[in-house]
Amino acid sequence: MLHGWANRMASVFVEWNGSGREYEYRVAQIQDSVCFCLHRLSWRECFFVGARKMICQLEAPDAESVRVALRQARINVDAVWAGSVHDVGEPGTANVAVERRFLAQLPANAEETVAWLQKAWLKPSGLSLVRAIVPHSRDRVICLCAVAAHDGTFAPAGTGYDSIRSVRRASRVAR
Q1: What angle is formed at CA 103 by the lines to CA 80 and CA 142, rounded to 5 degrees?
Q2: Higher confidence at residue 172 or residue 15?
């Protein structure tokens, strides 16, 4: 008997590019979808990265459940992936999202990964890590950071970041 297996849920992330209006429409579409309940999906949070990228965190049995639910609801997204969230700072203080892809996988141990990110990569650039989001593939990381004087153009030289953009938490559409 598999006690507890049926109740295990994963953090699954959905990404898409679009406008705020598109976001509101898609969130309403998903919330109204029978597939959402059928596949045991629940919202955790969403945030905008820059002007057009949206990332939502859901709790689900696995990434495939999210893909199937979205497909059945005829909702197109750019990516669906499972990952882990590592909170190390005050949740509401992030104002910059930093993304970087890696040729080699990040360390398997989450604490080692977060410590390495902070020491070798973020602190030297004046960034304070609030949350690290690491896909299970461990080939990239999205860091939600706080920087004191962010004016939308923060870009430390020589860091090797793939993107540095403003970030803001998105509120769920009231139903």
Answers
A1: 45
A2: 15
Q: How far apart are CA 59 and CA 10, in angstroms?
A: 6
H-state helical runs in 1-129: 20-32, 34-38, 63-72, 110-116
pTM of the predicted model as reported, rounded to 2 decimal places: 0.81
Residue 93, number of CB atoms within 10 A of its CB: 13
d(CA 138, CA 107): 8
Is 142 among the domain residues?
yes
Q: Please report which helix (H) or strand (E) contains residue 93, including its range.
A: none
Q: Are residues 32 and 61 in the same domain?
A: yes
User: How far are the Cα atoms of 58, 83, 114, 154 from residue 89, in angstroms, in the given order?
Assistant: 21, 19, 12, 20
Mean pLDDT (the chain, rounded) = 79
Show which of 16, 51, 83 is a domain's final residue: 83
Q: Three-state DSSP class for 50?
A: coil
Q: Which amino acid is at 101?
A: R
Note the pLDDT of residue 109: 80
Q: What angle do CA 89, 14, 144 make, to 5 degrees?
A: 20
Q: What pLDDT sits at residue 83? A: 94
